[in-house]
Structures are given as C-alpha cells and as structure tokens.
Amino acid sequence: MGKGVDVPPRAILVDKPAGPTSHDVVATCRRALGRPRTGHTGTLDPFATGLMVILVGRATRIAPYISGLDKTYVAGIRLGQRSESGDPEGPITPGGPPPDEGALREALAAMVGESEQRVPALSAVKVDGERLYARTRRGEQVERPTRMVVVERADLVSYDPMTGHATVELRCGSGTYVRQLAADLGEYLGCGAYCHDLRRTEVGDLSVAGAIAPDEVAPGCGVDPAAVLGHIARVDLDDAAARDVAHGRPVPGAPDGVDGPVALLRDGSLLAVAEPRDGMLRPRVVMAG
To answer: Which residues of the chain register pLDDT less than 50?
Structure first.
C-alpha cells in the first residue's frame, strides 16, 4: 500500500468501471486524496465493474475483517462459446448448442454449495513463485491450484436460448472466481461458456448503490470505518476506556456469547477492533495515532 500523508481513517465505497485494474482504481483514489496510505479489500478483474471498498489511512488495518465477506455478483454468461481467459479477453472459440432453460436452471442449482474450484489458467495466483498467467502465456503446462469455494445461491435472472446469453445473480464466498464458475457451468452442460460481463453489487451487507465513481473521490469523502464493520459485534466505550484502547490496553466489557472480533467505538467513531478473551477486550487493530 505504501507510505503516505497521515489522514483520518476513512472508508470509501467506489464503483469500479470496466477497463482499469483494481490497482489502477486504488492509485486514482490515492492521488485524489493527497497520497495517503490507501488499499482495498478485494480485487476485481479489469473487465468487471462494481463495488470496491477503499480504505484510507489507518483504516487499511481493518481490511482482513472485510475481505473475507461473502459477495454478490450479476454475471452475464455466454453459453455455446469458450474463452481461454474465461472472460471477453479470450481468445473465444465456438462451443456446442446452448441448452434449454430447464437444463440451465438444473445446472445452476447443482453449482450451489461447497466445491473444489481450480483457479483460472490466466490468474494472478503464484505457482512456484511466478504468476500463473505469465507461465500460461508462455505456453507452459502448469498444474492449476485448487481451492474450496462456496456458492450460496445462483439465480437465473434472464436467458435467451437463441443467443445463449444468460444473466445470473450469484452470492459467493470470498475467493471464488466467477469466470471459472461460468466456464465450469459450460463444461457441465457440454456446450462451453464464459463470463461476458460481471458486476459486483454487494460486499457483505455493503451495496454498490451507495458507491461513487473513482473520479468523484476527493479529500473529506467517505465514512468512518465503523460504517463498514456492521457485520461484527460492537461496544461503545466511555472516555476512560477509550483512552486505554488508544494506547492498545485491554478493557473489560466483552459481550456475552461473542467469540469473534468486536468493534470498539466512541461517539460513533471506530477506535479499534478487539478480540474478546477472558472477559476482556484486547485491541488487535487501533485507529489512534
């Protein structure tokens, strides 16, 4: 993420356009904000659009609490064609006849649940210290790593069997390659498929409806990091406890039955994220300088 000017911690919901990389979007935001420390919580491929959670200043420290959240996508899938990249970059080759709607719905239902996914050949995953896409483009035959992924739902929004174009809304666990889901769907149906367009609409309960374009980012925009941690427990602190937490000291008040991270707030602002242990809240990430 690099060093930069010290600014109050902020979170900005950005609607990524098609074309730039996620790194490009972060760089655009960082320049617009005066070059503070800036990061994001989950990559989108260049062809994809939609929600990126940009974190500024010390808010970059809470990225691990957001990057693992489930995500919702709307995918345009072209059945009856294959793409080496799994997306419009191609090269695109013909497949078989697109299926009827009933077969497609059955295949989508079969995708729901936990499964082992092989990462795309043209992905940034490192194999033996080198990006997989670089080795693939040199023509090397490389064993692609696998990972366990979860698809919570795969709903057919629309489908034209004449063109093979389907629009599918997916709710997936973190780390899922949607373009690989599209390719696997095509192989399951025997006709081939690729992800023609992709839009991320949600990260956890955060929606792209509240996002701004990268070129709209300016100093002072965004929200307190507490606003993007609504999925974890929270505790409001008094002045004395807030002073202790600012210095990284544990404080009492762990909520009953909570064994995950807890957001510690004072007057609505995030002071720290703590771990409850032995009845105490032990800061793990502190926003104070």
So the answer is: 1-2
How much is the pLDDT for 252? Answer: 94
Residues with a catalytic annotation lie at 45
83: domain CATH number is: 3.30.2350.10
pTM greater than 0.70? yes
Each residue of 243-261: pLDDT tens digit?
A: 999 999 999 988 888 889 9
78 and 186, same domain (yes or no): yes
SS3 137: helix
CA distances from residue 181 to 46, 110, 168, 288 in whole angstroms, order as listed: 17, 12, 11, 42
Is omega for the bond preceding 91 within 30 degrees of 0, making it cis? yes
**φ, ψ for residue 109, nearest 5 deg:** -65, -35
Domain count, the chain: 3
User: Are 53 and 11 contacting, i.e. CB atoms less than 8 angstroms apart?
Assistant: yes
CB 181 within 8 A of CB 111: yes
- Please state, in angstroms and rounded to a whole number, the distance separating the CA atoms of residues 96 and 263: 52
Q: How far apart are CA 121 and CA 119, in angstroms?
A: 7
Q: What is the pLDDT of residue 260?
A: 93
